[in-house]
Every structure is written in C-alpha cells, then in structure tokens.
Amino acid sequence: MNETERWKLANGYRLLSNEKGVPPVYIQRDDPRETFDLQDRYLVFIDHSFGYMLSQTLKHMIQTRQPPIDILDVGGGTLSLATREIAQSHPDTTYVTNIDVALSNKIKEMQNFRSLCEDACKMSIPNNSIDLVYSWEMIPGLNKNRREQALGEIARVLKPEGVAIIGEDDYCGLASSDARLE
Description:
alpha/beta, three-stranded antiparallel β-sheet, 4 helices
C-alpha cells in the first residue's frame, strides 16, 4: 500500500511532504495558502489549551440536558483521537462527530462516534443539530473568506442553545490592530 492509500481526503485537497520519499506531513487545498499539518491531538491537550472549558462545558451539558449531547470537533485530526476519547468516556450520554479534510483509513466507527471526511466550509451536518462545537487551531489556516464560511457553518449547525468553543493559539497576544487578525 502506498502512503496516499492510507488516507481519505476531502475534494480539493492533496497530501504533501517536505522531501521526496518522505511520508506526507501536510494537507493542502487548491489555494496554497491553506496548508495544514497531517496530525492528531489527544483530548487532554485540547482541553488544557481551552483552559478546561471544554470538559467543564461538556460536564454541565451532561448534567442539565437530555442525552445524547451532540458534539462536533471541527478539524479534529486524522485519527479523531479527541472525539474518540469523548465517545469512549461518555458512551451513554454523547454522540460525537469529527470533521477533517484528511482521515486515516484505520478509523473504526463506534456506536456514538463517527468521522466525516469533508471541508468545514460545507458540512453535511443538519441545521440546529449540535449542542457543543469545538475547534482548535484550524480556522487560521483558512483564507479570510473561507474562515467566514467555516464560522457560518458552525453557527448553522449549532442548536439555538448550543455552545461553540474556538481556540486559535496563533492569534493569542496580538494587538487588535495587527494585520494578521484582518
């Protein structure tokens, strides 16, 4: 099996590597400004980066809402590690979805978990169906128009009382006048 057969890719994306003969390490869209690491993160890292707001919000929702709590990780990684951890930790109270433009072919579905290989700017998830959306370090990789599209999609899929937690380390500490914030 060659290296590209290990991955499902959303339309318009391709795998890149730094050197010839080296396994792919990046995913790129037709727009070369949109290049992403081919990686995954464990829930503990994401939760810590959010100041534990993710785990506290989920805990509160499990205590106060009728299950299942529908959770969406936007740009959740090639192996869906964080979403799988949530699904395994809360099998009777959550239904968890990961969306990423590149997914490993080794992902196994679970009763309360699925992974979708698609673009965050055009999600197949129904309107008003998600209780909790989170995304870490994905939005800055999009060009300005596509950032707006992705945020619009997140707003579209959220239930009226839903919560979105978006963390983007790249912009922490920048002055409000910094051009990178557009």
